[in-house]
Design a protein that fits this description.
About 50% of the residues lie in helices and about 0% in strands. The longest helix has 20 residues.
């Protein structure tokens, strides 16, 4: 007999279909903006890997009230520093910072924090001020949501992604080494072959040959090897590699220009927007050259954008200035758990995207067999029609930017890896609109899933967290 919705959900005040709520429109400040020249229903110009990314959501559904969080007890005073040579202020930014004109209206830090924000923020600062951070405790705090203010999310994400170790004493050395390493990557991988040939010529001591040639009244002519000739097709030719990379670089340039066109931080003609675009391009080009098995796949720019945004808006000026190298290493670490999804040759393997989508359907069947049967058997809405984009782009196209940051807090704090939490969130997305799905046919359900309605993110994450504790082993 098919299992329907678990009793724990049906008995909860949070369990309610979006259909049963009064309709209201999402505020314009948080609505997704289409690309210039596109209608709200036209396909966007930035497709996901392999398949096209559907347009922004047209359905607008009212949000249910979030679950009332249990107030956290006021924290004790932050412990004194155990290492006076590295005060907490060296890495924990001050709350005071001039307003940033490029910060989008839907992601601004609240001018007056909610009553429960102050103790929650204090608990984060107390944990991050310890000589050795308790990673388990930090994950528990992050699972409840990371405060937007004080630049806490920037430090928390770096620790959760392994860029910063738990021992704060070695933070300066670790950051310095990685930032120097990234500069070396750029120096080696982003240099023009003409400049490389000139440097090789200077290093070979041709200046001495020039001096000898002047004594005989002859002009010096450099000896160009086969690999250094611009028309060489050799596998080791720097020019041949340069021209092969041109196509990828052009694709990266097009995708970066289309990244969040409604946010001034990523788009526009302002110097800061142009600088941010160039930083994103360099990160993606360096990643593509260091990972020839994957290189660049359309959609990686969408995964990169939230990390760079958070780090670039760090109130600590030094950390904000070093956002590019910090973002690169965190991007590499994040993508290490999803890289097989971007490799088309592995699509049908046990680590490929098809296997991951199958896992999603299995999770749905465990918790709501009735809905699974309706989607898979009755209407035949296969997960590749909607879940491909959800998984490969980490839900960055399904919700507004501010909500994505909140979802990512939960993904990054999972000790089993972001993919596990991502699948539970995707399953919760299906369960929250189950009544509409059960009442729909193939066409209506496909449209609904490809244009996921606006929902309360706290409600969504609450249901996803409940699925964790009730998974069938």
């Amino acid at each position: 007999m098919a299992r329907s919705v678990p009793e724990w959900m049906m008995g909860s005040s949070l369990w309610s279909s979006l259909d049963d709520r009064p309709q209201s429109k999402r505020p314009p400040a948080t609505a997704k903006q289409p690309n210039a020249g596109e209608s709200p229903t036209s396909p966007p110009s930035n497709p996901n890997p392999v398949r096209s990314v559907p347009p922004p959501k047209a359905a607008e559904v009212a949000e249910s009230p979030p679950p009332t969080p249990s107030p956290l007890p006021p924290p004790a005073a932050p412990p004194p520093s155990h290492f006076p040579s590295i005060p907490p202020s060296a890495f924990l930014p001050s709350p005071a910072r001039p307003s940033q004109p490029d910060r989008p209206p839907d992601v601004q830090d609240p001018a007056s924090p909610l009553p429960d924000d102050a103790p929650r923020r204090a608990r984060f600062l107390a944990e991050l001020s310890k000589r050795v951070i308790d990673l388990t405790e930090l994950r528990k705090l992050a699972a409840q949501g990371v405060p937007d203010s004080s630049g806490i999310r920037s430090i928390v994400w770096k620790v959760l992604l392994g860029y910063l170790p738990c021992n704060r004493e070695i933070w300066p050395d670790e950051m310095r080494k990685k930032r120097v390493q990234y500069e070396a990557f750029k120096e080696e991988l982003l240099i023009n072959p003409s400049e490389l040939a000139r440097r090789l010529e200077l290093s070979s001591g041709t200046e001495n040959d020039n001096a000898k040639g002047e004594g005989r009244g002859l002009l010096h002519r450099s000896e160009i090897t086969q690999d250094e000739h611009p028309l060489s097709l050799g596998k080791t030719s720097v020019w041949n590699k340069y021209f092969q990379d041109t196509e990828i670089i052009e694709q990266i340039d097009r995708d970066v220009m289309r990244t969040h066109p409604g946010m001034h931080f990523f788009s526009g003609d302002s110097p800061s927007a142009k600088s941010n675009q160039e930083a994103l391009k360099r990160i993606l080009v360096v990643f593509a050259k260091l990972n020839p098995g994957i290189r660049y796949v359309q959609g990686m720019n969408e995964v990169l954008a939230p990390i760079f945004y958070v780090f670039r808006n760090d109130p600590d000026e030094e950390n904000a200035a070093q956002a590019e190298p910090d973002t690169f290493f965190c991007f590499v670490e994040l993508l290490s758990g999803f890289r097989d999804h971007f490799c088309q040759q592995l699509d049908n393997s046990v680590v490929g995207i098809r296997s991951t989508m199958t896992r999603l359907t299995q999770i749905l069947r465990q918790h709501d067999e009735e809905l699974w049967r309706h989607l898979e058997i009755t209407t035949k809405v296969n997960p590749q029609f909607y879940a491909f984009r959800w998984i490969t782009l980490l839900l960055t196209q399904e919700f507004n930017f501010a909500d994505c940051l909140q979802i990512w807090d939960m993904l990054l704090c999972d000790p089993d890896g972001p993919l596990e939490s991502l699948l539970r969130v995707c399953c919760a997305m299906l369960i929250l609109i189950r009544r509409r799905l059960l009442a729909g046919d193939f066409t209506s359900n496909l449209k609904l899933l490809q244009h996921y309605p606006s929902t309360n993110i706290s409600h969504l994450l609450y249901v996803a967290d409940k699925l964790r504790g009730r998974s069938v082993q």
